[in-house]
Task: inverse folding
């Protein structure tokens, strides 16, 4: 894969946000010397051997809700073979048990492709029991089940990735019609980790474009409707601190993104659709130097955020305006309530939301739920609970027929650093 | 890349047509033993090292007519780095010189990606002069220029591929919105050549699906409108000889296909949109054992046709019903007039075309133009003419800044075998 060099890097305390890098070639050819350092070059190739090295240590989590079998199969076919597939489903289980169909699709694919996978249902009582026993009762709702929501599915996925012993976790949405774009996302994750200047790294994807039906033809818009708003206010927050306007954040709502577990296990994720923008907010809170960091070792190093613009357009199911509206609100809610959010930005957020009719005059943005970091989890108890109680949990063995999970699990991020 | 094994192979004389193989994984992971021969396995991985080996010897020809810069750039970004890019354009040259924009797009891309390319305009008088001098005056029209048409652009592309000294030539349409699918096509070509049991090989792509706008939503249809008709009659032809009905041909109209030059240089291509279906017809004529073959050496070996179903959907510009109608007619015309076409099939074709209103009762299908094989070309004279007279011809040098073309050129296919 060949990528542009990022031209600019913004700092927010220990957080380094690199400007969007474009993918130039999906496949940069036979392995050869990494020519990054040379004068006058505007781009860098990441040799395939380097991508492979990361892919072997990466789990790809697919949060899934009532997708069709054919679409899921396409997504699976695009995930590089060496990555571990983790499907976290919140699909309906009656009248038709759609999770059962998904699980079967994964198993069938993995049999043909001779590769391992993990699947679980978010609302499996056994999963809830295991998570509670492992020390994260905040994730459990009044019915005694893991809460509904995308952020919650991502947390479950990250916990499974941690149990698998992999070093990186990437997220890929299930509603994607183009297997080749899934392949590009995963490669971009690997390229980002390869280029990273720290073990605490996040890679976020910005799609090349998002085709929409407009007057009976395809129109390729550059930005999602929500992203523009989220990016604007995240950039505004950074600018208020630095005194210089910036456009550096281009991936505030990136569903496709990846984390080193060294970083991910330390982060507090938000519930629902607040999860992606809150990742930025949490980095600013924990590592921005404004508040005291619970992780002095990370502060002494740095947190690297890489943003990559893919070549493929993002063809997916249109969930409609309501969905977009919810996403936008949740993003602004978490930003508004962050202790690092300055009064000027707060004021602008309220003004925007009021003008949009999302807030009544004088009303305050809602609070979104956030969760403690997964480093709090007792992984051995989670593993024990999963394997004994979670009936929806499946480990699909790969060609080597070895267990997918590590037993005993190795914690990636101790609470005290 | 991981592919299903083809389950069935039909023979037509020396032509082996393998049943459609599906792509299972775009990326089959770290290189490992090729496990093709093992019992019980339904699929085969083609290791990346094998794909690379073919890609280094492959030229990818993009026939292009008035595409937008952004779409072309996307297509280029999907072509594996090691393949040589050849753009053959028949775009307008005034008011706006669109070829100039295309050429500039290719040069800019190649500069970033440090790779070579060739571009030429189909209607360049210097190209026509060079081709005439090299011994293929059939390609020249009354204006003294290379004839308009897709088949003609493909011939020019193949001649340039031959001059570059590459062993394989692949064709990829320019109107493709998904770079990842272009990448998959090229990989599938390479996988097909790797698996081929002969040096005389053709690899043809069948897309997974072709999304269409239907009542404001996307509908993923499995087959193009023209392909169904073309495949039906090609299969009918085979069945008339064998006495057994068959569905083996699934790629009669495949725009995305590739040829070993050993085979391609011996083939007679048709003009316009008859080019793709006529490739099958020409194989049946030259190597089907019905007529005497001009190439006994090939007959003693075999011609291998591989058909691969990709994972990616084919998102492209909808050229409308007229375009489709033309393509369908041209396919049936060449089949009808082939000396290997049996009376029963001829009758069925006429009945079909008459029922469609494409023929008046009693009328005969039109003749399509076909060209002599490129092995007739004096490559040295072609090279000389191109470099001295063809003003639209550009050789973009790659990282090694070596000439793109071989001088003197090595003929791939002598006329007498």
Result:
């Amino acid at each position: 894969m060949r990528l542009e060099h990022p031209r600019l890097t913004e700092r927010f305390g220990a957080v380094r946000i690199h400007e969007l890098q474009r993918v130039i070639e999906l496949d940069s050819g036979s392995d050869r010397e990494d020519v990054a350092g040379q004068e006058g070059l505007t781009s860098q190739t990441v040799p395939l051997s380097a991508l492979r090295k990361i892919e072997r240590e990466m789990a790809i989590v697919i949060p899934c809700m009532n997708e069709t079998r054919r679409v899921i199969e396409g997504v699976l076919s695009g995930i590089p073979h060496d990555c571990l597939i983790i499907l976290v489903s919140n699909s309906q289980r009656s009248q038709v048990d759609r999770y059962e169909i998904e699980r079967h699709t994964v198993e069938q694919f993995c049999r043909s492709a001779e590769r391992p996978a993990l699947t679980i249902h978010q609302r499996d009582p056994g999963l809830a029991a295991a998570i509670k026993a492992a020390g994260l009762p905040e994730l459990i709702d009044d019915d005694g089940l893991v809460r509904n929501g995308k952020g919650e599915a991502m947390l479950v996925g990250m916990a499974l990735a941690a149990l698998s012993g992999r070093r990186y976790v990437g997220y890929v949405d299930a509603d994607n019609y183009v297997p080749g774009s899934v392949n590009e996302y995963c490669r971009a994750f690997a390229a980002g980790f390869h280029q990273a200047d720290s073990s605490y790294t996040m890679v976020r994807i910005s799609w090349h474009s998002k085709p929409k039906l407009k007057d009976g033809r395809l129109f390729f818009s550059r930005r999602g409707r929500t992203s523009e708003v989220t990016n604007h206010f995240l950039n505004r927050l950074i600018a208020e601190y630095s005194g210089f306007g910036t456009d550096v954040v281009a991936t505030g709502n990136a569903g496709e993104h990846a984390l080193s577990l060294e970083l991910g296990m330390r982060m507090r994720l938000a519930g629902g659709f607040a999860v992606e923008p809150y990742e930025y907010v949490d980095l600013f809170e924990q590592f921005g130097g404004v508040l005291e960091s619970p992780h002095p070792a990370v502060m002494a190093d740095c947190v690297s955020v890489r943003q990559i613009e893919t070549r493929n357009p993002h063809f997916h199911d249109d969930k409609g305006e309501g969905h977009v509206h919810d996403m936008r609100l949740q993003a602004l809610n978490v930003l508004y309530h962050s202790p690092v959010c300055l009064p000027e930005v707060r004021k602008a957020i309220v003004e925007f939301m009021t003008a949009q009719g999302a807030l009544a005059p004088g009303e305050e943005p809602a609070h979104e739920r956030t969760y403690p970091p997964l480093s709090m989890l007792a992984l051995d108890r989670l593993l024990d609970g999963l394997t004994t109680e979670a009936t929806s949990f499946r480990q699909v063995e790969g060609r080597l027929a070895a267990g997918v999970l590590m037993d005993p699990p190795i914690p990636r991020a101790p609470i005290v650093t």
